[in-house]
Design goal:
It is a single chain. With 246 residues, this protein is of the alpha/beta class. The chain is built from ten helices and six strands. Helix 3 crosses helix 4.
Length: 246
Amino acid sequence: MLIVNADDWGIDAATTEAIRECLEAGAVTSVSAMVFMVDSERAAGVAVAGGFPVGLHINLTEGFTADAVDGRVRGRQARLARYFAGPRWRMWGFSARLFAEIERAIADQLAEFRRLYGHEPSHLDGHHHVHQSLSVLFARTLPAGARMRPSFTFAAGEKSLANRAVRGLLNRAMRARFATPRYFFAIEDVHPKLGGAGLEEALALAGGSTVELMTHPADAQERTILLSQAWRELIGSRRVGGYADL
């Protein structure tokens, strides 16, 4: 199965509408929603009315922009955003000092998602891929058995052996607790019109495994590709779906 997922649903109205256009055209099959953002409330209403498949885009790296956010929730988010904006290793490592706050922040966002959407998220992933941090991955407030986005898939030669080994170990840890697609790519890394390579090969993997292709329709170039006839033809012959089908 091929999952074409659009990130950042609800971050602002322009992004939500760009994704909505792609959803209604059948160009994307799943979205990841942010909560406590300026368009989160309206975006949830759109998704519920449209029956769109929606997961939670865990955000620990960007301040909340909605007006009505509890001061403790907003302050916790601000502290964590400052932490993850620091040295790069923090996006991968573990913080014993902030672990309880990270767990609480995830619980805050899960509770808000349930309030807005009336059900559990179809899947979990992370804004700026923060879900790959061990501080997030080990959080006890993440529901065991949930569907989760894996780390990127890279072929030999695309990244260093050490990088690919770390990602492999990370994916093994994820699969021990969560359900994940076998492969994960960003459209910008594989589509030739976006400077990438290997699109046909990446999509072909969906013939025998589950592949997620991450998109950001707020980007004009990506949206043009996703709304093109060529894209419809490219994915039209494949089994497509959302994380709920995983």
